Amino acid sequence: MVLMYSNEIEKALEAESIKVWDTVRITKSGEAYEGILMPRTEAGDADILVIKQKDGYNIGISFKGAAISKVSSLETMPQGRGATASAQAKAKAPAAPGHGAPKVALLYTGGTIGNKVDYKTGGVYALTKPEELLNEVPELGGIAEIDAKKLFSIASEDLSESEWVAIADAAAKALNGGAKGVVVTIGTDTMHYASAALSFMLQGLNAPVVLTGAQRSSDRGSSDGFLNLICSAYLASRSDIAEVGICMHDTSSDQRCALIRGTKARKMHTSRRDAFRAVNSAPIAFADARGNLTYNGQYKRASPGGGGAVKAVTGLASKVALVKVYPSSDPGIIGYYRERGYTGMIIEGTGLGHVPNFTSEKSLSWLPAITEAIDCGMVVGMTSQCLYGRVNPNVYRTLRMLSAAGVVYCEDMLPEVAYVKLKWLLGNHGPEEARKQLPRNLAGEITERIEYSEFPE
Amino acid sequence: MVLMYSNEIEKALEAESIKVWDTVRITKSGEAYEGILMPRTEAGDADILVIKQKDGYNIGISFKGAAISKVSSLETMPQGRGATASAQAKAKAPAAPGHGAPKVALLYTGGTIGNKVDYKTGGVYALTKPEELLNEVPELGGIAEIDAKKLFSIASEDLSESEWVAIADAAAKALNGGAKGVVVTIGTDTMHYASAALSFMLQGLNAPVVLTGAQRSSDRGSSDGFLNLICSAYLASRSDIAEVGICMHDTSSDQRCALIRGTKARKMHTSRRDAFRAVNSAPIAFADARGNLTYNGQYKRASPGGGGAVKAVTGLASKVALVKVYPSSDPGIIGYYRERGYTGMIIEGTGLGHVPNFTSEKSLSWLPAITEAIDCGMVVGMTSQCLYGRVNPNVYRTLRMLSAAGVVYCEDMLPEVAYVKLKWLLGNHGPEEARKQLPRNLAGEITERIEYSEFPE
After folding, report:
1. What ipTM does this complex have?
2. Which residues contact B82 (CB under 8 A, 6 or more apart)?
3. What three-state secondary structure class fits B345?
4. Residue B356 confidence (pLDDT) above 60
5. What does pTM read for this prediction?
6. Which of A347, B168, B210, B349 could form a disulfide with B353 if both were Cys (CB 3.0 to 4.6 A apart)?
7. Taking CB atoms and an 8 Å limit, are A457 and B252 in contact across chains?
8. What are the backbone angles phi and psi of residue B453, rounded to the nearest 5°?
9. Which pLDDT band holds residue A421 (cuts at 50, 70, 90)?
10. Worst-scoring range by mean pLDDT, A322-326, A349-353, B94-98?
11. Which candidate from A124, A154, A160 shows the least CB-CB separation from B396?
12. Domains and CATH numbers, chain B
């Protein structure tokens, strides 16, 4: 039985004489998607068109605001497009999961998604076996062939650079071993630091690497972990995204998850399920529990021919600091870091990237200490504690002084991302190269132009 | 000529047999407002009801979602309500500004609102005379009798505790000298630190103290300073709010300004005109260029009889630090602050209030350093770098360990506000009292229950 799409969609199909299995072109929000129009499945949403793209993967596109046109009919398909015809043939009999289904590596690292309440103390403790997690979400087996591996079980506040290296190495190994994508389950508190680290480390990435977790443990009725995991598995197994992203709830409801670029995400709420936000950016895709994927913006697409090997470039300088300035803050801590051999520092300045300079109490002026540190070879980058927006050294005289002293203005980069990036740059390059690369876009961490809608009103 | 209100309002008035000059009761969002229904003025919005309250001040209430009922007719007004009758009489002939108009003290401290572009360098420099600012906004003279005073001209990044003390002293002096309210023009970058300081310092406050500024200098077409100043003057001269607040654009349009509680505001964007947001809270009022005031939530009302004298309690401990933790952050900086005699520290923890504890690299564990500092008498408070939401020491075992060590969990307080509060507590009390008061609500800095709508979706 072929289920009907919504009245609105069926009308549009009739107007264009489009039948299921025809190749169609859907345009939406300035993006175009081409593929074979799939029949609506029992689990499918009547408002979401599903097409099978040339790479064999299905994507779902909400019809709201979209236009559809016919590229070719099934009957009149030109010769020489065997790949498409083959995809059509396969589409009629979807591959049974587990047999020819895409392989996804699931890397378990700890965090709330694997937590249970300790009924003795009322506190929460971590599970030790990732299998327990998989058993709780049997749907995963219907999405992809999951190869689960426990790397370690560490709470997110205790993660540091050595764990990021281990995750990057395991992700590269899995992808080079044939996995279609990677899901990393990880604690949420520092997930955005980890996603930034993986974004810089995984060079030559040609597949999705999806970090996910839970704000509430799995034995709570309101747990978000199930949907987050399912959506992550769909994104890792069926999207053509070749980036590192964070997949968590898009809103407070269980409607769908958002995939936020790994260098543009930030945890903005202590407890809400939609705590992660795309700052100075928009999510790059959405996924729902039925596997409908909606692409939302520009992203790096996987090369259809497959890329070369993924390389984990995991050098990280240990001696880099993230320093926030504030009224009456003491610039003496720069000396503390210098004495300990620090080679880099990211400042969370105020507004457009200021530090206290002309304070009534002279010992609270930061410019001399910063200048001295730079003169001694430290790389110093500037971000804003506002989080949203962009630093700019060209507006105020005092900013020009900082810029002239050698402070690198980091555009619209989040402070946390700039911190991770500088650690990575100094871990793999000398200070000159690090200073040069810091304000350049390497992994989507800098947005040329911020859309106005990307600051929530 | 009496202008009509909107059709919807006129219908509601007819249904209740209400005429202009009748005393009415308007209920909206659980709040009730009583006063004389004023005729719509030429400049008035047809959708906004204006009533004159008992204190003689007009407020505007958007009729959307409101209900109106009659309290008494002008004709049938009972004897002995002379005050109201007198107010009615006055209402027919509004007081000429400058003669009997409310007095407002305008304290000029510097910042972009007084900036001009230097056409030689293209950079921006600060004006030196507040009169120049007043001359650019002649509307102010029609709102209140403005008594402008320049305290200093310092960019916001250079403001520190001594300037907050000077502003608090000047505000208290103005209010004790008969001002109806105070407007402070100040740089925006650290405005929320200053508003928090004034919120704690101004004890016995019975009038509005409104901080305002500009994101763009006055010679730019998109300058927000004019509307911000006008709305601030209305709020300072005509509202019954007895709190410190920040008045800046509510959205990116020039429609209205929001007044955000001084202890709940944060600058969340480097350049947008609506950069200030109420975090874990909602704005307490809105104002527009016509003087329509809309109250939006709970706030401390001025006592109609007038309070006693306002006292500026300006003690501030200099040796307090705001410290953010992050992956691979060095707990050794606690030692740096201890050696310099610091008596307090606010931590920006991750998530619900964590610090790195059980890191693979033992020297990166924060718990021992924190415990030692507390044992030596330092007051340590915990907030979250998520900004939105609330820290909670009762969820995870590791949080209980921090709490047991004596770390004070600061509920839903912003890190910047907790920092200012701890400086103030330690500047006026001993450490025991400071530790006790830190997690208690003193000036609206702690919200008992956060509304779900207060995190932007």
Report:
1. 0.79
2. none
3. strand
4. yes
5. 0.79
6. B349
7. yes
8. -75, -5
9. very high
10. B94-98
11. A124
12. 7-92 (2.30.30.520), 103-312 (3.40.50.1170), 320-437 (3.40.50.40)
